Amino acid sequence: MKKNTSFSKVTFGLTFAMTTCFASFTHAALPETLRLGTNPAYAPFSYKNPDNQVAGFDIDLGNEICKRLSIECSWVEGEFDALIPGLLAQKNDVIISSLSITPQRMEQINFSDKLYSANSRLIAEKGSDLEPTIESLQGKSVGVLQGSVQEAYANDKWRVNGVDVIAYQNQDLVYDDLLAGRLDSAFQDEAAASYGFLQDESGKDHAFAGPAVKDDIYFGPGTGAGLRKEDEELRDAINNVLAQMLEDGTYEEIAKKYFDFDIYGY
Q1: Spatial contact of 96 and 115, defined as CB atoms under 8 Å apart
Q2: What is the enclosing helix (H) or strand (E) of 250?
């Protein structure tokens, strides 16, 4: 760390200009490389492209953040429920993988400012009368991603009331069992379900079932980048470049590649 004179420059730069002083802060206080953890089975946020490379909205956001921080970044793939343990075990440095900001997770890790909003929706066969309520789902099966906020909500609200909640290691396995008739419904992020399943030929016979489920305790204000609690300087740096991206239109430009609606949720 530099002495107080440099810190004063940093403070001034972040508050008024976020230009050369911010760059000085970046090189003085941040690591030269970062490992970004993601689960590439959740299109359009994180998935494998035809060249077997990670791609998606989360990936584009992460790469742009690294570019602006002048940090070399690599992507570390893992199952979703292993991302936070991996962060705490120093196997990755930042999680960018549709990670909802929730009170439970904030007991373990820190978060950046919001990356985007995330509604949770039930999907079922077209014509189904299923709704995301206890009364409608009693005796029915619901597939969820293991370690997700949807799993936590479904276990606490539905399983205890006679709903068969089944967790899977990745989202593609949920869709496979839904298509095979082994599940009555699936509960996941709205944008991921729309882009990654319903708009695909395989999902043509399925649709959203009922409205989005709202619960701030479980779903929080949206998703964020997950960091270790001690990495406050890294969190602040990510927040600053994210604010720049929102201000200069870069965020919107990236989002338009994947969504025809306001994913940030102004």
Answers
A1: yes
A2: helix 250-255
- pLDDT tens sequence across 14-40: 443 444 444 444 445 788 999 999 999
d(CA 60, CA 55): 7
Beta strands in 117-236 (DSSP E): 120-125, 141-145, 164-168, 185-189, 206-208, 223-227
Which CATH number does the domain 31-117+221-255 belong to among 3.40.190.10, 3.60.15.10, 3.40.50.300, 3.40.50.150?
3.40.190.10
Under DSSP, is residue 99 helix (H, G, I), strand (E, B) or coil? coil
Q: Is 162 left (phi over 0), alpha (psi -120 to 50) or beta?
A: left
Strand order in the sheet with 185-189: 164-168, 141-145, 185-189, 120-125, 206-208
**Does pTM surpass 0.85?**
no
What are 143-199's pLDDT values in tens digits?
A: 999 999 999 999 999 999 999 999 999 999 999 999 999 999 999 999 899 988 999
Q: What are phi and psi of 220, to 5 degrees?
A: 65, -165
